[in-house]
Design a protein that fits this description.
9 strands, 5-stranded mixed beta sheet, 21 helices, single chain
Length: 545
C-alpha cells in the first residue's frame, strides 16, 4: 500500500523546492565563454537602453491602471530586478505591462489602490503555486501558429499603443491629437531615431544603436530648442526608495471574494505572456527550458512588489526584444536595467524627463518592426489553411481583446482542427487470420478517441463477417472513454449476430485503460510488451448497453 505523506512533509518539500530554485549558482550569471570587459560593457549599455525605454511605458501603464506613476516605476524596478536574478531566461525583461493594466483599472476604480496591492500579493502567491506544481510546462501545448499570431498581434498592439503619445489633453480635459509644428517635429524625430537604430549597426556595434539614437535625438531637440512633448510632460519621475507597507485592506473573506477573481486573471495573463516571451527570447538566444523557474520568479517578484506599492508586472516582450537586439544576453543586462531605473527615480529624474517622447516612440516602432514575424505573411500561403486561420485569428483576438483570451482561443481551435483531421485518418486493413482458421482480422490504423469513434464503428461489417473477428491495435491507440464505448458497441453488434471479437496487440496504456474498466475477458501483461500476441475478449454492458 502506498504511504501517504503528511501535509507538513509535502509543504516542507514545496518550500525546499522554492528555496532550491532561488539558490545562488554562479553558472547562472557567468557566460560559458567567461566574463570580459567588452561583454560587461555591452550588457550594461543594453540595460541602460532598456531602462530609458521603461520609464515612459511604466508611467503610461500606471495611468491606464489608475494608480500613481511611481507605482508603475516601482513595479518595473522590483519585478525587473527579481526576475533578472531568479528568472528562467537570461535576457528577459519584466515590469508593468499594458495587458495587466487593463484588468487592474476596474478594481482600482471600484475599490482603490490598496486593494490592487493586496491583489498583486495574491497574484504572486498563485504564480508561486504554478511554479511549485510545474504548470509552466503546459506552455509546450501552444502550437506554432498560435505563437506566430501572438507575436504579430502583440507587435500590432505595441505599435497602436505608441500612437497615444501623439495625443494631448485640451482645456476641456479631452484627449486630442497634436497638430501643427509639434506633430511635424515629432514625426521627424521619430523617423530620425528609427534611422539611427537601423543604420548605426552597419557602421559599428561598439555601443547599442538604440541608446545612441535616444541620446542624439535628445541633444538635437535641446540644442535646437524645439518644443515637443518629453517624458517630464507625462509625469514626474522623481521619487524615493519604495517603502514596505502591508496593504490597508480588511483581512477577511469579503476582501478575498473581491480580490481573488482579479488575482487569478492577472496571474494567468502574467504567466502566459511571460512564458510566451520566454519561448520567443529562447529562440533568439538559442536557450531552452526554465518555464517553472520563470513562474517561481514572477510569483516571488509580484508578492514582494505588492508590499512596496508596486502595481505588479510580468515579462515585457517589447523591452525584452530591445534588450536582446541591443546585445543583452545575460542576467547582468536585466539587473543593470532595474538598477538604472532606480537611479533615474532617485537622482537623475530631471535629465530623464528631458528625453523627447518621439525618441522613445521611434525605439518602440523599431521593436514592432523587429518583433512582427514578416515571414508569416508568406507562410500563410504555404502552410495548411487551418494553421493560417489560427495565426490570423490569434492576431486579431490579441489586438481586439487580450493575450490570454487569444492564446486560449488559439489552443482550442488548434485542438479542434487536430481532432477533426485525426478523426478522418482512422482506417482498417482487412485480411484473413494467419493463426485462427476462418477468422478475419481488422488491422486498425490511427488513434481511437472521441472524434474518431463514429468512423471506427463504420469500419466493421458484423452481418457478413465470420464467426470470429480479431481487431488488431498494433498501429492504433485506445485513448479515452469514447474509444472504450466504441469498442463495446462493436462487440455488442457482433454479439447480436452470435459472433465474437478479440482484441490483439494492445499497448501498455491501452491495456491498462481497458483493464481498469473491466472490459477484458482475459487479462495478461504479455501483449503490451509484444512478447506474445494475446487475444482479448470484450465484456459487454460496461457502459450501459
Amino acid at each position: 500500500m502506498k504511504k501517504i505523506k503528511p501535509h507538513s512533509e509535502v509543504a516542507s518539500q514545496a518550500i525546499l523546492g522554492i528555496a532550491k530554485s532561488f539558490s545562488f549558482n554562479s553558472k547562472k550569471y557567468i557566460p560559458k565563454d567567461g566574463a570580459s570587459f567588452s561583454l560587461v560593457k555591452v550588457e550594461i549599455l543594453s540595460g541602460l537602453t532598456v531602462a530609458l525605454a521603461l520609464v515612459p511605458e511604466a508611467i503610461a501603464f500606471a495611468f491606464v491602471a489608475g494608480v500613481a506613476p511611481l507605482s508603475g516605476l516601482y513595479a518595473a524596478f522590483i519585478v525587473g530586478l527579481i526576475t533578472a536574478v531568479f528568472g528562467g531566461r537570461p535576457g528577459m525583461i519584466s515590469g508593468a505591462t499594458g495587458a495587466l493594466a487593463v484588468v487592474m483599472v476596474s478594481l482600482v476604480t471600484l475599490h482603490g489602490a490598496e486593494y490592487l496591492f493586496a491583489t498583486v500579493v495574491l497574484m504572486g502567491l498563485l504564480q508561486l503555486l504554478a511554479g511549485v506544481f510545474k504548470l509552466g510546462k503546459f506552455i509546450r501545448m501552444v502550437p506554432e501558429p498560435v505563437m506566430l499570431g501572438f507575436v504579430n498581434g502583440l507587435a500590432i498592439v505595441i505599435g497602436i499603443s505608441q500612437l497615444s503619445q501623439f495625443k494631448t489633453i485640451n482645456d476641456l480635459g479631452q484627449s486630442v491629437w497634436i497638430s501643427g509644428d509639434i506633430l511635424l517635429y515629432s514625426i521627424v524625430f521619430v523617423m530620425l531615431t528609427m534611422f539611427v537604430i537601423w543604420f548605426l549597426p552597419k557602421l559599428t556595434k561598439v555601443v547599442p544603436s538604440t541608446l545612441v539614437a535616444i541620446l542624439l535625438t535628445t541633444v538635437l531637440v535641446l540644442a535646437l530648442k524645439i518644443d515637443i512633448p518629453s517624458v517630464g510632460d507625462l509625469a514626474s519621475v522623481k521619487g524615493g526608495l519604495p517603502n514596505f507597507s502591508i496593504p490597508n485592506v480588511p483581512l477577511n473573506f469579503e476582501t478575498l471574494k473581491i480580490i481573488f477573481p482579479y488575482a487569478f486573471i492577472l496571474a494567468s495573463i502574467g504567466l502566459i505572456e511571460s512564458l510566451l516571451t520566454l519561448n520567443l527570447v529562447g529562440e533568439i538566444t538559442n536557450k531552452r527550458g526554465g518555464a517553472s523557474q520563470e513562474c517561481l520568479a514572477q510569483g516571488f517578484a509580484n508578492s514582494v512588489t505588492g508590499f512596496f506599492g508596486g502595481m505588479g508586472g510580468c515579462a515585457m516582450i517589447g523591452q525584452s526584444m530591445i534588450n536582446v537586439r541591443s546585445g543583452g544576453r545575460t542576467r547582468l543586462a536585466g539587473i543593470a536595467a532595474a538598477l538604472f531605473l532606480l537611479i533615474f527615480i532617485l537622482y537623475t529624474s530631471a535629465y530623464i524627463e528631458m528625453i523627447p517622447i518621439a525618441a522613445l516612440v521611434g525605439v518602440m516602432f523599431m521593436v514592432v518592426i523587429g518583433t512582427f514575424a514578416w515571414n508569416s505573411i508568406k507562410f500563410l500561403m504555404m502552410v495548411p489553411r487551418s494553421d493560417a486561420l489560427v495565426t490570423v485569428l490569434v492576431t486579431f483576438v490579441t489586438v481586439l481583446e487580450d493575450l490570454a483570451v487569444a492564446v486560449i482561443v488559439g489552443v482550442i481551435v488548434s485542438a479542434l482542427v487536430y481532432a477533426w483531421k485525426t478523426a478522418s485518418r482512422i482506417r482498417a486493413i482487412e485480411r484473413p487470420s494467419k493463426t485462427e482458421k476462418g477468422a478475419k482480422v481488422y488491422e486498425i490504423e490511427g488513434p481511437l478517441f472521441f472524434s474518431s469513434a463514429n468512423s471506427f464503428l463504420e469500419l466493421f461489417n458484423p452481418e457478413n463477417d465470420p464467426k470470429l473477428v480479431i481487431v488488431d491495435f498494433a498501429k492504433s491507440r485506445v485513448i479515452d472513454q469514447s474509444a472504450l464505448k466504441a469498442i463495446e458497441d462493436v462487440a455488442h453488434k457482433y454479439n447480436s449476430f452470435g459472433k465474437k471479437i478479440k482484441l490483439r496487440h494492445l499497448t501498455k496504456d491501452c491495456h491498462k485503460l481497458l483493464s481498469k474498466t473491466g472490459q477484458l475477458v482475459v487479462d495478461s501483461d504479455d501483449d503490451p510488451d509484444y512478447s506474445l500476441a494475446v487475444d482479448y475478449g470484450v465484456k459487454l454492458k460496461i457502459f450501459g448497453k
